[in-house]
Design brief:
The structure is a homodimer. In chain A, the strands form three sheets. The first copy, chain A, has a four-stranded mixed beta sheet with strand order 2-1-6-5. Chain A has a two-stranded antiparallel sheet with strand order 3-4. Chain A has a two-stranded antiparallel ribbon with strand order 7-8. The first copy, chain A, has two helices and eight strands; from the N terminus they run E-E-H-E-E-E-E-E-E-H. The longest helix of chain A is centred in the N-terminal third of the chain and has 10 residues, at about 35-45. Chain A is mainly beta. The interface of A and B includes residues 28, 72, 93 and 110 of A.
Chain lengths: ~130, ~130
């Protein structure tokens, strides 16, 4: 198994950049620890470490919007990875947008450059 | 000025994913703090916070390989940004490769999928 430099971070977490394997659009960024890394390699499905829940997180475990790993890139320092994925359900963001990066800086404002939500978050995750 | 959620991290650092604005290739990932964010917005050149040197880092200050900001994307939680840049000198990685992500996971090994270095690191940074 490929070893990553988890020891560089005090919490043992490294960032994983997630790209659509067809378009190279950045869909999201999440964090992995050793366990999430192993689960991802074993299953071919993107796993992360949820910092808010402090637990292993299979992306899509609630929504069904699993990310199938197509390729994994590792950086020069082995402290960041890129997951190239097929995003099931068409949207990576919990807000219903395809990408979490659906806004861009326009002067002093953030503007949504992708208007259409792929899904209604309330329908997928329930009312909060 | 757009406010990011720097307070979410104990060190006030957030990840910045750097993409080539033409190809969408991920070139590198580095960290920003409030100062680096302000300098980037003010100058249109990518600034980061060097965790190893603990100082503001204008990417390219040594090599001349500055990153000109073409667009900045902000994620749903405002705790990660994407810099879409024009990479002067053609290479973002200190090893001389175009991208820091020049290797991919192939079974239990990392293989270089991009064979040619854009520059010789010794020539750019000097012998170490």
């Amino acid at each position: 198994m490929i070893e990553l430099a988890f020891a560089k971070d005090t919490n043992g977490l490294l960032p994983a950049v997630v790209q659509d394997y067809r378009t190279d659009e950045v869909l999201m960024l999440a964090y992995i620890n050793q366990l999430a890394w192993e689960k991802t390699l074993e299953t071919g499905k993107a796993h992360y470490w949820s910092r808010s829940r402090n637990s292993l997180w299979l992306k899509g475990e609630t929504s069904g919007h699993v990310q199938l790993i197509k390729e994994i890139l590792v950086d020069c320092d082995q402290d960041t990875v890129v997951y190239k994925v097929e995003q099931l359900g068409g949207a990576a963001c919990h807000t219903g947008y395809r990408s979490c990066f659906y806004r861009k800086v326009t002067g002093d404002a953030l503007t949504v450059y992708e208007q259409e939500r792929v899904f209604d978050p309330t329908a997928v995750y329930g009312a909060k």
